[in-house]
């Protein structure tokens, strides 16, 4: 099953304009401006307490912004209560009504809208079929598993045909196996119904796997809004680089900065780092270089020294000793200590079956990377 | 192995007795024994001024079914039911507001309900008399508007008012503890699905906290049924409740066996209410299991 995100429509459906939310002196959301397009599977990602849930709840109308405006389909939501907004939410605890059976839970919102019984029944059946709960229509919530309860919550929200479906940590209460299955299924459902999904999660894997775009937040502010791949490969700052996946960050100074290449000298490594693009920083500026573990190649030290880039042959090659290794099945993670005492994380794919780990602890190795591997961050 | 197990179970049973001995002695000495004595009196007959012979007669219970007493039982049940209904109507919104109040507001609202509760019942009842009597504050106020005076004291109205005042905490506190534990996201989900606040209260909150409401109703109804001081001081000649009649049997009439039979009738009614509560709980449990 493919989980590639749906294409963007180019039409702005949700707009946050300089939105802030304060609880007393605590700033939960700090001047956030953000556009979400129709048909997107948008993810609000960040550590706990970063303001992502508050942002979602303001969209639902369950919290009121202290400052700023929220527009849905061009309409300012200020003063519009949650029951009059074209959004529906899947709560983290699912909030399935315990005194109603599955079908009644799903029908609740339609009864409020005074949808005629025949149409209501048809739409409930359709929603239950969508989440594969047709056989459970007359079950009571306490006879359902966590995954099934979540499907009820999903059906109950989708049956209202909202413009936006809000999901608050939808997979956090499920066990690992079910979570993987639901991840693919949620993305599938989103493509099937074409409703804009806005999902809050603290789990980067979840966001990267499902979302068409992510907003990464920290301490109430937006750090970066980008497609998952761009967040990973082109982080805007150290926080983003560090939050998404694993990265080796080296602090250094910009020794060369030409339009088509740049070099950074760092005390952490005994070789300069050469990149194949210019950095618009001041000369000798303090910068950070990030290199993902899987982008560092490792060869035994008794092999010939790998050649560095043509422009700067001494760059991008260093050596060290493997201090720890962790075999994770598809890859092995190594910690390599360089002559300068820096620990460099390296991830090597286990392309062939072999004794584990392929390189034992204590092995001296060359570490090298291409000029396209590092990312230079100025803040 | 056997030694070890027996040692552990012996130790824990020792701990069990150490903790429960005092309450068991207390219950036996001050509840089971006196209640058994009174219960046996209800099957007896007065011999002299202080002597009761337990003969096993059912005469006292037969007398309870005399229309005079049945009427008083009916009146007591009616007073208790009206009191409970008004307490629920007033107390549920109060508890709901308390649940959603700020921490500071919660304390103030709790004090509002607890301060009268901590005040001596007699003091509160006399205060109510001062408010409601013909020369009382309400009639003074009405007099300024050119109305009245309205006779309030020593009427059934005064009794119900007093009973509601006294029993409000019995319904607000258990309701608050139930509502406070209610998953807020159920309310938010209802609003999110388009429901207004009233619909959310009646279709989501009330059904979900119904067991708590039933407990609160019982907790209010039972003491209201046995009220003595309030109807005695605030009521008129036709507002007698059963407790006053019982008191008269033990004192002026000096008919302890009949007083005991009346007391136990009240007890049986209370027990019946509790059995009904347990039964409705079990039924709800069974319904959920299907």
Architecture overview:
- The complex is a heterodimer of chains A (379) and B (290).
- With 379 residues, chain A is an alpha+beta fold.
- Chain A folds into 2 domains: 12-241, Rossmann fold; 249-377, Nucleic acid-binding proteins (OB fold (Dihydrolipoamide Acetyltransferase, E2P)), CATH 2.40.50.
- Chain A contains 8 helices and 20 strands.
- Chain A has helices at 52-60, 102-112, 117-130, 146-158, 176-193, 204-210, 228-233, 238-243, and strands at 12-23, 26-37, 41-45, 67-72, 75-76, 87-90, 164-168, 196-201, 213-218, 221-226, 248-257, 262-266, 273-275, 286-291, 297-300, 317-327, 331-338, 343-349, 364-368, 375-377.
- In chain A, the strands form 4 sheets. In chain A, strands 6-7-8-3-9-10 form a 6-stranded mixed β-sheet, with helices on both faces.
- In chain B, helix 3 (67-100) runs antiparallel to helix 4, helix 10 runs antiparallel to helix 13 and helix 12 packs antiparallel against helix 13 (256-289).
- Chain B has a single domain (61-289), classed as MetI-like fold.
- Chain B has helices at residues 2-41, 59-64, 67-100, 103-118, 121-132, 137-144, 156-181, 184-192, 197-208, 210-225, 229-234, 242-250, 256-289, and strands spanning 44-46, 52-54.
- Helix content of chain B is 79%, strand content 2%.
- A two-stranded antiparallel sheet of chain B has the order 1-2.
- Chain B has 290 residues and is mainly alpha-helical.
- In chain B, 27% of the residues are buried.
- Residues 1-6 of chain B have low confidence and may be disordered.
- The radius of gyration of chain B is 24 Å and the shape is globular.
- Classes of the chains: A alpha+beta (379), B mainly alpha (290).
- At the A-B interface, strand 6, helix 2 and helix 4 of A face helix 8 and helix 9 of B.
- Chain A: Belongs to the ABC transporter superfamily. Spermidine/putrescine importer (TC 3.A.1.11.1) family.
- Chain A: It catalyses: ATP + H2O + polyamine-[polyamine-binding protein]Side 1 = ADP + phosphate + polyamineSide 2 + [polyamine-binding protein]Side 1.
- Chain A: It comes from Novosphingobium nitrogenifigens DSM 19370.
- Chain A: Residues 14-244 form the ABC transporter domain.
- Chain A: The complex is composed of two ATP-binding proteins (PotA), two transmembrane proteins (PotB and PotC) and a solute-binding protein (PotD).
């Amino acid at each position: 099953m493919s989980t590639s995100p749906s294409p963007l429509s180019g039409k702005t459906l949700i707009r946050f304009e300089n939105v802030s939310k304060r609880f007393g002196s605590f700033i939960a959301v700090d001047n956030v401006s953000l556009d979400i397009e129709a048909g997107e599977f948008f993810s609000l990602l960040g550590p706990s307490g970063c303001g992502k849930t508050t942002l979602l709840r303001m969209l639902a109308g369950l919290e009121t912004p202290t400052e700023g405006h929220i527009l849905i389909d061009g309409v300012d939501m200020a003063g519009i209560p949650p029951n009059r907004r074209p959004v529906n939410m899947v709560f983290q605890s699912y909030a399935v009504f315990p005194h109603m059976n599955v079908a009644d839970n799903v029908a609740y919102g339609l009864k409020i809208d005074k949808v005629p019984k025949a149409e209501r029944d048809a739409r409930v059946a359709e929603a239950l079929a969508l989440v594969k709960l047709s056989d459970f229509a007359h079950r009571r919530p306490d006879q359902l598993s966590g995954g099934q309860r979540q499907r009820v919550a999903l059906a109950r929200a989708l049956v209202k045909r909202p413009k936006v479906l809000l999901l608050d940590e939808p997979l956090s209460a499920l066990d690992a196996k079910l979570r993987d299955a639901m991840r693919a299924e949620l993305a599938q459902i989103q493509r099937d119904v074409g409703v804009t999904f806005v999902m809050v999660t603290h789990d980067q894997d979840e966001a990267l796997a499902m979302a068409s775009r992510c907003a990464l937040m920290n301490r109430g502010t937006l750090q970066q809004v980008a497609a998952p791949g761009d967040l990973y490969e082109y982080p805007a700052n150290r926080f983003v680089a560090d939050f998404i996946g694993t990265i080796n960050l080296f602090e250094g100074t910009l020794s060369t900065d030409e339009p088509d290449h740049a070099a950074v000298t760092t005390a952490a490594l005994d070789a300069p780092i050469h990149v194949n693009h210019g950095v618009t920083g001041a000369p000798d500026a303090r910068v950070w270089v990030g290199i993902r573990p899987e982008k560092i190649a490792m060869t035994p030290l008794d092999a010939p020294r790998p050649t560095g880039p043509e422009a700067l042959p001494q760059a991008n090659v260093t050596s060290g000793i493997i201090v720890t290794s962790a075999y994770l099945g598809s890859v092995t993670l190594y910690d390599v200590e360089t002559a300068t005492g820096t620990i460099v994380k390296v991830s090597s794919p286990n392309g062939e079956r072999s004794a584990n780990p392929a390189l034992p602890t204590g092995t001296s190795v060359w570490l090298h990377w291409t000029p396209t591997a590092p990312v230079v961050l100025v803040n | 192995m056997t030694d070890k197990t027996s040692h552990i179970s012996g130790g824990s049973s020792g701990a069990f007795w150490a903790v429960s001995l005092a309450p068991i002695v207390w219950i036996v000495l001050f509840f089971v024994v006196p209640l058994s004595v009174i219960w046996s009196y209800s099957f007896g007959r007065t011999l002299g001024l202080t002597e009761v012979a337990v003969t096993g007669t059912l005469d006292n219970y037969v007398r309870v079914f005399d229309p005079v007493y049945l009427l008083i039982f009916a009146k007591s049940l009616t007073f208790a039911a009206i009191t409970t209904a008004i307490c629920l109507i007033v107390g549920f919104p109060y508890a709901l507001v308390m649940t959603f109040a700020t921490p500071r507001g919660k304390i103030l609202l709790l004090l509002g309900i607890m301060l009268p509760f901590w005040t001596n019942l007699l003091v509160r009842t006399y205060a109510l008399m001062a408010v409601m009597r013909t020369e009382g504050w309400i009639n003074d106020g009405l007099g300024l508007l050119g109305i009245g005076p309205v006779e309030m004291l020593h009427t059934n109205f005064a009794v119900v008012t007093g009973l509601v005042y006294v029993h409000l905490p019995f319904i607000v506190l258990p309701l608050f503890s139930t509502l406070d534990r209610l998953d807020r996201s159920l309310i938010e989900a209802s609003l999110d699905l388009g429901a207004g606040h009233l619909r959310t209260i009646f279709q989501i909150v009330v059904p979900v906290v119904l067991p708590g409401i039933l407990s609160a109703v019982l907790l209010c109804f039972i003491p209201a049924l046995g009220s003595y001081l309030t109807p005695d001081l605030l009521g008129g000649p036709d507002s007698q409740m059963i407790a006053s009649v019982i008191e008269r049997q033990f004192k002026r009439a000096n008919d302890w066996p009949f007083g005991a039979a009346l007391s136990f009738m009240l007890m049986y009614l209370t027990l019946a209410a509790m059995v009904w509560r347990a039964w409705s709980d079990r039924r709800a449990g069974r319904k959920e299991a299907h």
